[in-house]
Amino acid sequence: MNAKKHKPDDPTISPPVLEMITVANEYCLFFERAGNYKADDILEYYQKMAPLLYLKGALLPVVQVSDEAVAQCFVTEEQWETVFRSLREQFKSLDVYYVLDHHNDTAETSLSENMADIYQDLKDFLMLYQKNMTPARESAIAQLRKLYQTRWGPAIITSLQKVHHILYKDAIDPAIFDNDDEWLV
């Protein structure tokens, strides 16, 4: 007798969620070892991984959380700092860039900070999901989906633009930007 714990239509084990787990795990494993890579290696990895993460985030299902009490965070400030500092050490002067905020004002941001924030959100998702209880999985998915909409989705968009500029700066004709090297806002 096959005693299945999950319904076949259980959104917490749907293909989009399982695919997000795979991609999130790869991202987290890479960034936990970021200090072992050169800046170009990190940027090239991010260039390939960020669009995939963005797509997988957009495909996450809406999940009703049956028990709000299971929501929790696992990444400590020290873990975040370790990832952030290793990235900042690699990126050096490439780290800081500027974006337009929701008031159309220029705001300073950081590749290291964005990548570490994405790491934190994905790692928290993975750790909560691993509890392997339906309420924990529901909460992990709902929390990641909300953070995708408000935090790491927008971070991917802005940082990927900066990464593209860094990787292809020699191929970009500066004349189209009126000889302004700081065209990326």
Report what the structure shows.
- By secondary structure, the protein is mainly alpha-helical.
- It has one domain (11-177): Four Helix Bundle (Hemerythrin (Met), subunit A).
- 57% of the residues lie in helices and 5% in strands.
- It is built from 5 helices and 2 strands, in the order H-H-H-E-E-H-H.
- It has helices at 15-32, 39-58, 77-91, 111-129, 134-167, and strands spanning 96-100, 106-110.
- The longest helix is centred in the last third of the chain and has 34 residues, at 134-167.
- The radius of gyration is 18 Å and the shape is globular.
Which architecture does the CATH hierarchy give at level 2?
A: Up-down Bundle
Rg on CA atoms, Å: 18 Å
The rough form would be described as globular
Q: What average pLDDT do the residues reach?
A: 90
Q: Quick one: how many beta strands?
A: 2
Which structural class best describes the helix and strand composition? mainly alpha
Main CATH class: Mainly Alpha
Query: The biggest beta sheet, please?
Result: 2 strands, antiparallel
Q: What is the N-to-C succession of helices and strands?
A: HHHEEHH
CATH level-4 homologous superfamily: Protein of unknown function DUF5063
